[in-house]
């Protein structure tokens, strides 16, 4: 059986790329098709596969500018031709699911989210203060067309998988289709191998993620400015200049990008992880819990499926005041927390469980061919 793996772009190693890496392990002889590839940017297991790119790969500085090409990405993905494949598996949060499958092939799509910046998170990306006036005007102009394409492009998908019940609801609401939930793989091994002793010694709260608009780092920064409690921030991204211009308050530290091998220590020494995004699934809270640490999370989206009342505290509005109140409630809640409860919760989302579920879905799809 000849398999094609399709992914939106390969320019950094984040949650979607961890899913692709696990798929590469399942299908070691598969070809990869993607819009843009920055060599060396993703896991060696992905890089070891033949990688085919689109015409965008020839655009100068495309690895930095690819987001600006959003209005033409549907046409670009449809122009990529797949031939002689029996099975197409797309890993999609933008346009990958819109690839045209070869005659006789079957298409299984693992959807991280409908095109979030054109649906419910539109204002987070293109609202006042989030983008320049010309970009906002252009986004409003193309939004109806991109929503229509996002919905209609699912017609070429034979079986839809999603990463959470939260996204299954969005698929039902935006696309009018049903999808099966397969939780994504979380690389728990390196986080679970350490003993659940000597935790929280750093005394700081930890925020970790990409500096993207919907991650809402701004909430954490303002809440901890008010609280005066120590907050360590790990990450970088498109909003780095906005968040790091000028000296931060004395209680807030920006650590920038951190090597994977250092993350375990940061998690273990943190008092708690602060999670401010309405995430489609959210791997970071599971990594923290695998290390035996609790989570203070915004109570919507995937966090409701990965954090429970024994392993964290929720806040119900994306405001600094709501988060600050949750931190105060956490201080009363914390004495009853058991690190073993957090690790047990994380272990439900293993890589092996993901791979077994995907293979069961592939078998079910091919049995109908």
From TrEMBL:
UniProt entry keywords in alphabetical sequence: Glycosyltransferase, Transferase
One Pfam family, short name: Glyco_trans_1_4
Domain annotation Glycosyltransferase subfamily 4-like N-terminal: ranges: 15-190
GO terms, molecular function: glycosyltransferase activity
InterPro entries: Glyco_trans_4-like_N, Glycosyltransferase_grp1
Alphabetized PANTHER family for the sequence: SULFOQUINOVOSYL TRANSFERASE SQD2 (PTHR45947)
Protein name: Mannosyltransferase
UniProt source species: Cystobacter ferrugineus
């Amino acid at each position: 059986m000849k398999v094609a793996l399709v992914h939106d772009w390969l320019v950094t190693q984040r949650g979607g790329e961890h899913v692709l890496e696990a798929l590469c392990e399942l299908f070691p002889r598969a070809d990869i098709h993607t819009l843009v590839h920055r060599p060396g940017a993703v896991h060696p297991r992905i890089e070891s596969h033949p990688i085919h790119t689109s015409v965008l790969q020839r655009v100068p500085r495309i690895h930095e500018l690819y987001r600006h090409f959003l209005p033409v990405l549907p046409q670009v993905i449809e122009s990529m031709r797949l031939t002689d494949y029996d099975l197409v598996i797309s890993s999609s949060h933008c346009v990958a699911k819109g690839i045209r499958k070869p005659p006789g092939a079957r298409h299984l799509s693992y959807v991280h989210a409908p095109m979030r910046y054109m649906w419910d998170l539109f204002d987070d990306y293109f609202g006042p203060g989030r983008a320049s006036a010309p970009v906002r005007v252009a986004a409003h102009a193309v939004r109806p067309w991109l929503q229509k394409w996002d919905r209609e492009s699912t017609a070429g998908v034979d079986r839809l998988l999603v990463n959470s019940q939260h996204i299954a609801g969005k698929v039902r609401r935006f696309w009018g289709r049903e999808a099966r939930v397969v939780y994504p793989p979380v690389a728990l091994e390196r986080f679970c191998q350490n003993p659940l002793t000597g935790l929280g010694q750093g005394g700081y709260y930890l925020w970790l993620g990409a500096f993207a608009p919907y991650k809402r780092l701004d909430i954490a920064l303002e809440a901890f400015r008010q609280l005066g409690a120590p907050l360590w921030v790990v990450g970088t991204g498109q909003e780095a200049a906005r968040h790091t211009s000028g000296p931060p308050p004395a209680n807030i530290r920006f650590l920038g990008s951190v090597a994977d091998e250092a993350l375990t220590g940061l998690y273990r020494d943190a008092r708690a992880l602060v999670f401010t995004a309405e995430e489609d699934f959210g791997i970071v809270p599971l990594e923290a819990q695998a290390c035996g640490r609790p989570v203070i999370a915004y109570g919507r989206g995937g966090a409701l499926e990965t954090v429970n009342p024994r392993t964290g505290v929720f806040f119900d509005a994306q405001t600094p005041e709501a988060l600050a109140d949750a931190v105060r409630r956490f201080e009363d809640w914390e004495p009853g927390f058991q690190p073993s409860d957090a690790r047990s919760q994380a272990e439900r989302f293993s890589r092996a469980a993901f791979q077994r579920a995907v293979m069961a879905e592939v078998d079910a799809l091919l049995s109908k061919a």
